[in-house]
Structure formats: C-alpha cells, structure tokens
Amino acid sequence: MDAINDRILHELSRNGRISNLDLAERVGLSPSACLRRVQELERRGVIAGYRAVLDRGALGVGFVAYVTVGLNAHTKAAQEAFERAMARAPEVVECHNITGAVEYLLRVEVADLPAYKRFHTDVLGTLPQVNAITSYVVMGSPKDARA
Fold first, then answer.
1. Predicted confidence band at 145 (pLDDT cuts at 50, 70, 90)?
2. CA spacing 20 to 30 A to 103: which of 30, 49, 71, 127?
C-alpha cells in the first residue's frame, strides 16, 4: 500500500461507479496505470466488491434498531444455531459476534414499530438459545459511512 493506492481506495469508497478515466485524473495517474492498480487491489482482495448505497426510506424501511443478544449457552452449537437463524432473517442486515456482556450485535431494518415487534417476538423470541435481548432504536444518523 502506498499513498496513491490510499487515494484510489478513498475515491472508490466515495463513488464505486467512478469511471477509470475520472479516477485516474483524481489520483494523478494515467488511465492504464490506474486500471492496473485497481485490478491488483481487486486481485489481492483489498477491494472485495462494489455496492449500491440504498435509500432505505424510499424502500419502505422506516425503523432501524441495533439489538444486543445474549445467549444462554456459550457453546459452538448455540452460536452456530443462532447465526443460521440470523442468516435466514431478512430483517437482520448485519450480525456481529462481539466481546463483552453479550454475544451478538444486530442491525435490524423494518418498515415500522409493529414490524419490529413481530421480528422481536416471532424470530428472536422463539430461538431457544436466546437469553437476553436489548433494543436500541435509531432516531437519526448524522454520520453513516457504510457503503
């Protein structure tokens, strides 16, 4: 990694659809040298993929919550079962195994509070390995740099 690759990554993280010509101009390279660097970053796995940034409100998602989940057993089987259930839940857009007083942090996105209550009751509430659930409702996001 060098300063030019850092600039390439910065520009691509801001706009993954930027043309190679515009990217090369912004980072001070010829288009062919820029393309070689981007391809090498992709080959090495530094660039893992490209995503579209979605307007969740336009998609009908008006309720976002971060949810901590504690399990009643600290076993591999309990973790794997919980992770499989979260992989099947479309409401869960992020699932992180974390350190601390609980095992998991979820980002849950749904249409509204009744939809969240259904997820809380019908999905999380039915999993035998779940011991504790704490919900943190997002009221606003003054900074959100996720791609």
1. confident
2. 49
